[in-house]
Amino acid sequence: FPSHDRRHSEIQKRIDADTESKTVLQDFAAKRAKDILKYSSEHNASKINYLKLKKLNDLYGAKTLITLTGLAVIVPLRDIDNKLTGVQFIYPDSRKQFLENQRNEGCFFQIGEITDRVIICEGYSTGATIHQLTNLSIVCAMNAGNLKNVAIAINKKYPKTKITIAENNDQ
After folding, report:
1. CA-based nearest residue to 112, from 127, 126, 99
2. How does pLDDT run across 1-16, given as a tens digit for each residue?
3. How far is 133 from 115, CA to CA, in rounded Å?
């Protein structure tokens, strides 16, 4: 079946090219995230509308950046090897946005050091609230679809760590 093999080879070449293009775009997004963090800062939590709205008293490692709509919270996302992959912008009106083409799967925002117990939750404000109330190690997966990916990555790197999943009850 030579025509089938040739067709399969062409499809595989397209898949490889798409994968390479995706990697290039993700690397570019990671570089943009690095630049954004370079120009961001740490403001007093009491001056950040989003944190006041959520009753949070600290950024817990997130940063801030002045945008056209006001002071945005910048949440850096990293993979399990601590490589910066992107950021999430949280604007004063609570709107959230990731960088275009950034890698999110298995990436997270961490609050505190991972020890013998960690709570994996969906979003930044949920994680910051849980940490503020419990002082436990928190990993924010940034969305429900990423909880499993993050849990697998944490379990693989920290097999003795007890993982608790704190899912949102969005109804």
Report:
1. 127
2. 455 566 656 656 665 6
3. 18
